[in-house]
Amino acid sequence: MTATSARTATPARPAASRHRTALRTTALALVTALALGACGDSGRLSGSTATASAASDGGTPPVAMNPIAELDPEVWNVTDYDGILGVAMIGGTDTPLQWEADGVDDETLQATREELARFVSGAFFKPDKYRKTDDAGDLAELITVVPSVWTDGVREQWADGQRRFWVMELAPEYRVIGTPRANIGWYRDDTTDVHRILFGGTIAYGVIDTRTGETGMVAVQVGITATPATTTNGTTPTEAVGTSVLSGVDWCATDEAGGLIVPAIGPSQEATDAQRMLGVAVIAKPEVNAYSVLHDRTGPLAGNTDTNVYCD
């Protein structure tokens, strides 16, 4: 997906426009896709009830309750790498024995899942980690967690101003409250000649403006289609296609912050509307199932123009 990183490139009320190169985005909700083969061929590409303090006008800092603290823990039950891997893989019509006969054994499946879980947890579950380094340091940290088939593409996308699509780091005036919480799923896909693993999930964050104490939510929805290596191929996955969608974001302010994410929170009607639609369209319906991962032009991975704030 190509991001609308420059303010002039962001339409006031964008339609579901896409640019299909190594990375694809809709200006409306940040849809990212990156697909790189093992040989470099390019294609498409839980939280606690913790509180946070915000500086006010010289008085006692207000205490903000985490907006995602009341999410159903049975639905939003993943908070870290181990939790991601703890979700069982379902679906598919071929038996595991058939996958193994085709060269995809349990060890390779697990290694592929670990690669994807390392990326998702490292990029989206640890927002404070990226506050400790500068832009170059952020990229170096990200490179350590992305699947190897994505390394070159990530560097290119980062240099092109697309960092917002790869890591969750808020602009300096904002903080994540407590721990992100996620609803995720793993799926087997054998609808093509190649066995694939699908990952789909929604990650929610409670966020606060440390200057005013105003709070709200941000969410990122992720879908990944990955091809495990066969027992003779080595590095796994050999190919992976990812899509991510951001909601609860002030798009122009994020542009002005150099891609550091500015939440759409505050007293404006636009921010209020975006937060309401985020709750209705994303938080209340967090599942990103196998069909949604495979058909990302519709459903949750297509994005929603009403969940973000755009340029005037």
Which terms summarize this structure?
8 helices, disordered N terminus, two-stranded antiparallel sheet, alpha+beta, globular, 8 strands, six-stranded mixed sheet, 312 residues
Structural account:
The protein has 312 residues and is of the alpha+beta class. The chain has one domain. Helix content is 24%, strand content 19%. The protein contains 8 helices and 8 strands. It has helices at 81-85, 96-101, 106-124, 135-143, 151-159, 251-256, 269-283, 290-294; strands spanning 34-35, 52-53, 63-64, 89-90, 174-189, 196-209, 215-227, 239-247. Strands 1-8-7-6-5-4 form a 6-stranded mixed β-sheet. It has a two-stranded antiparallel ribbon with strand order 2-3. The longest helix is centred in the middle third of the chain and has 19 residues, at 106-124. The radius of gyration is 19 Å and the shape is globular.
Widest sheet: strand ordering: 1-8-7-6-5-4
Percent of residues in helices comes to 10-25%
Our Rg estimate from Cα atoms comes to 19 Å
- Whole-number total of structural domains: 1
N-to-C span: 23 Å
Give the count of helical stretches.
8
Looking at how many chains there are and whether they match, the oligomeric state comes to: single chain
The computed structural class is: alpha+beta
**Largest sheet: number of strands, sense, barrel closure:** 6 strands, mixed
Low-pLDDT windows of residues: 1-61
Average pLDDT reading: 80
What is the ordering of alpha helices and beta strands? EEEHEHHHHEEEEHHH
Shape: globular
Strand percentage lies at 15-25%
Care to count the β-strands?
A: 8
